[in-house]
Amino acid sequence: MIASRASLLRIGTAVLLPALSLTLTGLAGCDRGDHPAQVGTAAPGFTITDGAQTVRLSDYHGKVVLLNFWASWCAPCIEELPSLIALQKQMPEVTVIAVNFEDEEDSYRQFLKDNHVDLLTIRDASEKSNHAYGTTRPPETYVIDKQGIIRRKFIGPQQWTGPEIENYLRNL
Fold first, then answer.
1. For the purposes of burial, counting CB atoms within 10 Å of the CB of 69, is it exposed (0-12), middle (13-18) or buried (19 or more)?
2. Can you tell me the distance from the alpha carbon of 160 to that of 85, in angstroms, rounded to the nearest whole number?
């Protein structure tokens, strides 16, 4: 028996529409492409207080900022942490701000102690800062220029002391 055009159209629509809907929904909520929408826009400001310190992004206006979102349970975050520390030492004119989220305070503090983290890092228990940037899966890092504009977004661990990245940061 040969299916009618109408029934083929109904079958095609039943299969294609849900797939298209899922694809569009995923794209609308995801800013993880090769040119995220945030690039070229003002970096969302934040103030984070974690009991030990307060960090305000606005305090770093006029400096290049590498804003890194990480978690101690995230293997790729741990992989790139030594490179972030090395970059901060090699390029003190660039401010690295490492914002931890999704960690319990005790785990976070113990991780910093055990790993001798020598970097400006703060725990955002409220997770408002990472949500302002649309970051829910660490590591993600934003390069913010001296005027407070997001210039690049890096997803996943990077080798921060490579010549390409260092040259890029020097020229901002």
1. buried
2. 9
What amino acid occupies position 48?
I
Other Cβ atoms closer than 10 A to 3: 10
What pTM did the predictor assign?
0.79
DSSP H/E element including 18: helix 5-29
Of the chain, the percentage scoring pLDDT greater than 70 comes to: 79
Extract the tokens encoding 7.
């029934």
Per CATH, the homologous superfamily of domain 34-170 is Glutaredoxin (3.40.30.10)
Domain extent listing, the chain: 1-30, 34-170
How far apart (Å, rounded) are the C-alpha atoms in residues 118 and 82?
Answer: 9
Taking only the tens place, the pLDDT of each residue in 55-77 is 999 999 999 999 999 999 999 99
Calculate the alpha carbon distances from 44 to 5, 127, 134, 146, 170 in Å. Answer: 52, 13, 10, 14, 23
Residue 95, SS3?
strand
Interval 106-132 mean pLDDT: 94
User: Using one digit for the tens of pLDDT, what is the confidence trace for 81-91?
Assistant: 999 999 999 99
**Best CA proximity match to 30, nearest among 106, 116, 109, 140:** 140
